[in-house]
Design a protein that fits this description.
The structure holds 4 protein chains of 4 kinds. Chain B contains 8 helices and no strands. By secondary structure, chain B is mostly helical. Classes of the chains: A mainly alpha, B mainly alpha, C mainly alpha, D mainly alpha. Chain D: Keywords: Cell membrane, Membrane, Transmembrane, Transmembrane helix.
């Protein structure tokens, strides 16, 4: 094994020796520089591999042939080796990124870069306090030098501001070091830790030392100086500044705080949390990409600092958590900075230029997912373990603040991603070349590799190693294939997976599985209507299905949560594909993440830090915690089912999605929330908090959702929006059923799982088909399509009959069970709401068929054809199924009924032949079908007989009698169709919830705008901020520590 | 004004912290364990009577290597900073001292003496106060003097750069030799310790001192020249 | 003695910091920082000082055998040497920056260099 | 420790603080630089008193000597630049 000292020696020796090579042969100089960096990286990697595989022990390297504390010593353990590898590799890639500048400036610039990488490596390895100071100064000076490589003249100002603050740090650091030395008689970190100190002033000295090191981490708000560097420096260098310097500075804090003692940890936690949340809030208002990355970097450093503050409770998981966060941050941030070198524009919107290049989009998505901590990246595993440890230690506020910070960070990162996908791409916004792209993709590869490694560590569940997720990766690789071929493969994959697993499921899971997996395959039939390659669709869709598949497979909390996040990520990308869906996809993501965090907290609370924790142990939670677990999980699941109050993401997300995506996210994805509720209630049962039965609360929320969803739906002019609101209403029914906590209620909910999937998918496909032909979703622009699109008409007709719950279709079965269920329950008041939702539902459904298919055909639509075959086919399958299900509900429900019976220990329904009997009456679907069919045929015949009495009317024979109408839509009789009801029910339409969430958004943005005024740009003011920060922390800390 | 008051207040609060340190400060009665070790082993381990030199060259040699690197960085960066901007033509120098005949002659006479003195300080660094830094600074002041005296005369950039690179590289190599032939990186034991208290003793310390002196002198000279130069660098 | 030196050093540090944060002229800021640096050096040396002892140089007057009773702590002195040189490096760098900034705007007022903000 | 040494230390300390105050309050930058150099010079004397001859040599050569000249060189450059 080569000695790690060689990393320092090679870096330094090469930097010095460059002068011997002459200054004219710049290519040679650059080659030597790269070779040296590569050698340093190789040594680091050799050590990393050796330490990770256990081939070697942690190395203690003595200099001067004397043991510490009398001479400086270095250490290389697994953490050091990982950081060294990060630092040197970042340096190597950054040198490539900076190649143009380095070649222009010659050996000076290259030497500075080499020394910088050497110094950061030294900072990682050294165990001596004063040596830390020397390396910090080297890093600071080299930073001030490399900042000048930027073409941006503002970088000069930034460099000076940086130097001013470096001076202050140096002063504090030196005073701290010398008094620590005085108190301990040693400069060696381990030695200081080993000897107990009683000397006066030791705590204060330690404070000065720590605060100086913390300021190196650019804590909010004393960090204006660092942000200017991010903004103005060359991105190749910013990558080092963020990824390498930042990580090393964190490690130094970690090193020093170990001997300093646990009493300093709360202080670090506080500073870290303030920095994390504060920086992220300010970042919300940024529109310069690099400055935004700067704020994000600063925030991430704060997060890890807060994690360092938790080392006392993290125990063995400390390295895993902190390392996962640090490496995710380093790789993602370096990658994003290198990407920004490829982009010409500096506005966030200018990143739309990457849209034309699918690999770039993949890279961007990878980096963002890494930063936010989504699977399969290390940050995700780290977040999970961190949450477990924090909850186990009772540090809920810390967890809460961290999750809040992550949510805010997700807000601006995903908004940015939305810009990249949806905004207008600037002309020639990319200056892509092989090298810059290569560097970026090296970071992408690093990110995925880290994801694999973090999952593969013993005791973890490797998300990447599961079959569904591997399928997603395969679909990423298959992107160049034509869409039709990929569609065949996707359907095959879904059906194959179902064939593999269906035997293992209990009847309830099986129902969900059928809806989600083969159900998804049926909807995918509609995707055959798409042509071209449809880049991005299949990986996203398969990620969503993979998440759903894994959700059903999940046995432990972790598996469940990982599946949940995979599903969320995939569905976000799917929704974002819609033409106008940018804001809606963002709000979907934020609500989903917020809900997921509620789940995370709930799971952590339930398991109390014990891992792995099986899902069916949920029932063993202590009575004290159970209601809180119930609340958190319920909130998480209800965000997915879009219960009233948490619903505002749904209408836009579902309505603006693509034709074949709407049924997926509506018909299938919403069921994931229901599945979660089932799992939860099955284990936890009824819980009450402060004397309130929580299931009753759920029932109320369900009833209100059912009612208000329906009310909002009737006033929609956009057909897809109408269906979206209807989904809220329908999920409300299901939620109500589940919350009844009795046999029939659950059966009702199961019925809704099936029914809602079928008719909502069908209706969305039908409306999507109409949209494809008419290019509008606004109902008042349509009419009379019945003759042109008869198949679509049939499916809408069948759909609304099924949905409105009138006989003979399966919706009636739902109603029938439903009425039985509520007779069993003792909730009378929400019943009224639920009852009223029924007729209101009929109002909006009526509009759907009446406005689109009946009435006058519009002029632009005269040449329309039926919807494409591939859109009609699944609709016909659904229609056939609905009729069959109406006749024979037993085929699916009887087994579930038995299963639910085994849970509740009763059997209120008696299945006899074709008829079902309850204590309140009986239902014979076949008989009803026959009766209805007879009545229908009779009425139909009468109508045909009287048809000759009807008179044809020209379309515009009355409307244009006077002047030209100012707003053309007002001339359509169906516009604002339910205006009379508005008078009565308009008050229910007041967007209270939307205003509330809007207020939250405005408030946070206002805070961001206010806070960022703090950054005046004056270097002296920034220095004053630093001093103010030190003094403020001093006053706080001396109150707590000394 | 408010700004000054606020900053004054903050500085005063920091002063309170410092006051705590001062008022609670008790000088050690005995050398602490680190210092005691150095005192006891200066002869046997590094062979240098000047313990400070022994510490900076050997025991804390990594610091010193870093410190030399700080100067190297600074001079490289200053050259970069100034090479990006063209210097105006015109009178040069600080303009404080007239570069008269007397000064020129004096400088020419003094320069060798200063160089000799610098060499002495460097070579005796392990015996008496002084060493590589101090000697290097003295060497640089010789360069400074001749810059002041003869602003138009320019030292060969290449010569300084060569000295700078050579001494730096060699320093690192000596350090590596310590790893190969003695106890570790920068161990001075690669050469025999010799007789305690003589010029050629203390192992590689004199050698390293020379390298440090050359390096520091070259870096300082190059910084001074960069900042002083009248023409474009 | 050590207390005097400590107090002096701290006063210099505080004075330097105050000057650096209130003086808007960039050159004067740098001057103030050099004063603060000097203060730090004084503090460092003061911490190693022990009354009634001699410099850490072994010679006829201070043989090795009694060295640990006679000399003061050499470590802070070694640190200060390093700190002084590093301080000079940073000062030189700041001066070079000051020159660049002056070329940029023909001004040395720090409040004129604020186009990067928010 | 002799009272003489203590007195000497006190005088040097006061001189340093005095020079520092001059450096901070004076209007002329040249004076400020010279005063700062003086602070360093006094410091190096102080180091001798504190039994740190190595440090004293370094402070004198680097802190008060070279640094001061660096200032003057840069100020000269800036002045010429300003005259342009």
């Amino acid at each position: 094994m080569v000695s790690p000292v060689l990393i320092i020696a090679i870096g330094l020796g090469t930097a010095f020796a460059l002068g011997l090579l002459g200054s004219t042969r710049k290519t040679l100089l650059f080659g030597v520089t790269l070779a040296a960096l590569a050698a340093m990286a190789t040594i680091s990697l050799i050590w990393l591999v050796a330490l990770a595989t256990g081939a070697t022990e942690t190395a203690e390297i003595h200099t001067a042939g004397v043991a510490p504390p009398f001479a400086i010593n270095l250490r290389v353990g697994i953490a050091e080796a990982a950081l060294l590898a990060t630092v040197t590799l970042t340096g190597l890639l950054a040198a490539l990124s900076l190649r143009a500048q380095l070649l222009t400036l010659g050996r000076g610039g290259m030497a500075v870069l080499l020394v910088l990488v050497m110094a950061i490596s030294g900072l990682v390895m050294t165990r001596d306090l004063f040596n830390i100071f020397v390396f910090i100064e080297l890093v600071a000076i080299a930073t001030a030098g490399l900042v000048l490589l930027s073409e941006d003249t503002r970088a000069v100002c930034a460099g000076f501001k940086f130097l001013v603050v470096s001076q202050i740090i140096a002063i504090l650091l030196l005073v701290g070091i010398i008094f620590t030395y005085h108190a301990n008689g040693s400069l060696n970190i381990d030695d200081i830790g080993a000897t107990p100190v009683a000397a006066q002033g030791a705590a204060l000295a330690m404070f000065l030392l720590l605060i100086a090191l913390v300021i190196e981490l650019k804590p909010f708000p004393a960090n204006g100086w660092a942000l200017d560097i991010y903004t103005s420096a060359h991105p190749g260098f910013s990558a080092i500044f963020s990824a390498a310097t930042g990580s090393a500075a964190l490690f130094v804090v970690d090193k020093v705080v170990a001997p300093a003692g646990a009493e300093w940890l709360p202080l670090l936690t506080g500073i870290g949390l303030l920095s994390f949340v504060g920086s992220n809030v300010v970042a919300l208002r940024q529109d310069n990409d690099r400055r935004l990355l700067g704020y994000s970097s600063v925030g991430q450093l704060g997060l890890v600092l807060a994690v360092i503050g938790q080392r006392d409770v993290l125990g063995d998981a400390y390295l895993y958590v902190a390392g996962g966060l640090v490496l995710s941050h380093a790789v993602a941030k370096a990658g994003l900075f290198w990407m920004s070198a490829i982009l010409r524009g500096r506005k966030l919107q200018d990143w739309a230029a990457i849209r034309a290049r699918a690999p770039m989009v993949l890279a961007f998505a990878t980096f963002i997912a890494m930063l936010v901590g989504l699977p399969p990246f290390p940050g995700f595993y780290a977040k999970w373990d961190l949450a477990q440890a924090l909850v186990a230690a009772g540090r809920l506020p810390v967890l809460g603040l961290i999750l809040l910070g992550v949510l805010i960070e997700a807000a601006y990162l995903f908004r940015w991603f939305g810009f990249a996908i949806k905004r207008e791409a600037p002309e020639s916004g990319l200056s892509a070349n092989m090298v810059d792209c290569g560097i970026t993709f090296a970071a992408v590869a690093g990110g995925w590799a880290l994801g694999w490694i973090w999952g593969a560590i013993p005791g973890q569940h490797n998300v990447l190693a599961t079959l569904p997720v591997l399928a997603v990766v395969a679909f990423i690789a298959l992107e160049p294939l034509p869409a039709k071929l990929k569609n065949v493969l996707a359907i095959a994959a879904l059906l194959g997976w179902f064939a593999l697993v269906y035997g293992d499921y209990d009847p309830m899971r099986l129902i969900f599985a059928v809806v989600m997996i083969p159900g998804g395959a049926v909807i995918l039939l509609a995707s055959f209507s798409e042509t071209g390659r449809r880049i991005g669709f299949y990986p996203s869709a398969m990620a969503m299905y993979a998440g759903l598949a894994l959700l059903l497979e999940a046995n432990t909390f972790f598996e469940f949560f990982a599946a949940w996040e995979v599903m969320t990520l995939g569905s976000y990308f799917l929704i974002l594909r819609g033409r106008m869906s940018e804001p809606h996809a963002l709000s979907y993501m934020l609500f989903s993440l917020g809900g997921a965090f509620a789940l995370l907290a709930g799971f952590a609370l339930a398991s109390g830090g014990v891992q792995p924790f099986a899902l069916d142990q949920l029932g063993t939670v202590t009575a004290e915690l159970a209601p809180w677990v119930f609340v958190l999980l319920a909130i998480g699941f209800m965000t997915k089912t879009a219960a009233m109050g948490l619903h505002i993401w749904l209408p836009g997300a579902h309505a603006e999605a693509e034709t074949d995506v709407s049924p997926m996210v509506s018909g299938i994805l919403l069921k994931a929330g229901l599945f979660g509720l089932f799992v939860m209630l099955m284990q936890l049962g009824r819980q009450s908090l402060w004397g309130v039965d929580l299931t009753v609360v759920l029932a109320w929320i369900g009833a209100i959702s059912a009612f208000l969803g329906a009310v909002l739906s009737i006033f929609q002019e956009d057909a897809k929006r109408l269906l979206a609101y209807s989904s809220i209403s329908q999920m409300g029914y299901a939620l109500f059923g589940v919350a009844l906590m009795n046999h029939l209620g659950w059966l009702l909910a199961m019925m809704f799982v099936i029914n809602h999937y079928v008719y909502k998918s069908m209706l969305f496909l039908a409306v999507g088909g109409v949209y494809k032909r008419t290019h509008t979703k606004l109902m008042y622009q349509m009419g009379g399509l019945i003759t042109l699109m008869p198949f679509t008409f049939v499916s809408v007709l069948v759909g609304i009959i099924a949905m409105s719950g009138v006989p003979p279709l399966s919706g009636f079965g739902g109603r029938w069970i439903f009425y039985n269920a509520i007779m069993d329950a003792d909730l009378r008041l929400p019943l009224i709401l639920i009852f009223m939702a029924g007729p209101i539902g009929f109002l909006y459904l009526f509009r759907l068929i009446h406005t689109i298919f009946l009435g006058q055909l519009k002029d632009p639509h005269r040449q329309l054809k039926e919807a494409p075959f591939w859109l009609v086919l699944p609709q016909m399958i659904f229609a056939a199924f609905l009729i069959a299900f109406a006749v024979l509900p037993g085929m699916a429900l009887q087994r579930v009924d038995g299963y639910i019976g085994s849970i509740f220990g009763d059997q209120p329904l008696i299945w006899q032949g074709r008829a079902i009997t309850s204590e309140f009456g009986y239902w014979n679907p076949v008989a009803i079908m026959v009766v209805i069919a007879v009545v229908f045929v009779a009425v139909f015949l009468i109508l045909i007989a009287k048809n000759h009495d009807a008179q044809k009317v020209k379309q515009f024979n009355i409307v244009f009698s006077a002047e030209r109408p100012y707003r053309p839509e007002t001339t359509h009789f169906a516009w604002n169709f339910f205006a009379p009801y508005r008078k009565a029910m308009g008050i229910l339409e007041t967007p209270v919830v939307t205003s509330f969430w809007g207020g939250v958004t405005d408030g946070v943005n206002g805070a961001a705008e206010f806070t960022r005024r703090f950054y005046t740009g004056n270097g002296q003011t920034y220095a004053a901020h630093v001093l103010l920060f030190v003094v403020a922390v001093y006053l706080i800390a001396m109150g707590g520590v000394a | 004004m408010i700004r000054k008051v606020v900053i004054g207040l903050m500085v005063a609060l920091l002063g309170v912290a410092f006051w705590t340190l001062t008022s609670g400060y008790v000088p050690d009665a005995e050398l602490n364990r680190t210092a005691a070790y150095y005192a006891a082993n200066a002869e046997s381990e590094v062979g240098a009577p000047n313990i400070v030199t022994g510490i900076i060259v050997t025991w804390r040699g990594l610091d010193t290597l870093g410190e030399v690197t700080v100067l190297f960085l600074t001079s490289a960066i200053i050259a970069l900073v100034l090479s990006q901007s063209k210097t105006p033509k015109g009178a040069s120098g600080a303009g404080l001292l007239p570069s008269g005949e007397l000064l020129v002659t004096g400088a020419r006479m003094l320069a060798p003496l200063i160089a000799l003195f610098g060499a002495y300080v460097i070579m005796n660094g392990h015996l008496t106060p002084g060493g590589g830094f101090q000697g290097g600074a003295i060497l640089a002041s010789g360069v400074l003097l001749s810059l002041l005296a003869e602003p138009s005369r320019r030292f060969g950039h290449t010569v300084i750069a060569r000295i700078e690179s050579f001494s730096g590289t060699f320093y690192v190599l000596v350090g590596l030799a310590g790893m190969a032939y003695a106890g570790g990186f920068l161990d001075n034991g690669i050469l025999p310790l010799g007789r305690f208290g003589t010029m050629l003793s203390a192992g590689a310390i004199p050698l390293i001192s020379i390298l440090i002196g050359l390096k520091v002198g070259a870096e300082f000279s190059s910084i001074l020249e960069s900042l002083h130069e009248t023409e474009d660098a | 003695m050590a207390q005097i030196a400590l107090a002096t050093g701290f006063v210099l540090i505080l004075a330097g910091l105050y000057g650096a944060l209130t003086n808007r002229d960039i050159l004067r800021m740098i001057v103030a920082f050099t004063i603060a640096d000097t203060g730090v050096n004084v503090v460092l040396v003061a911490v190693g000082y022990m009354p009634g002892r001699t410099a850490p140089i072994l010679d006829a007057a201070v043989p090795v055998a009694v060295a640990s009773q006679r000399i003061i702590d050499p470590v802070p002195q070694a640190l200060v040497l390093t700190a002084i040189v590093i301080g000079l490096g940073i000062t030189a760098l700041m001066l070079a920056y000051a020159y660049r900034l002056f070329r940029l705007r023909h001004s040395l007022d720090i409040s004129n260099f604020t186009e990067l903000k928010w | 420790m002799s009272t003489l040494m203590l007195g000497l230390g006190l005088v040097i300390a006061l001189a340093m603080v005095g020079a520092a105050v001059v450096a901070l309050v004076t209007r002329s930058t040249v004076t400020a630089v010279l005063a700062a150099g003086l602070v360093s010079l006094f410091a190096s004397v102080f180091f001798v008193v504190l039994a740190a001859p190595d440090v004293a040599m370094t402070e004198a050569a680097i802190g008060s000597g070279l640094t001061t000249f660096l200032f003057f060189f840069v100020m000269g450059r800036i002045r010429r630049e300003g005259e342009k």
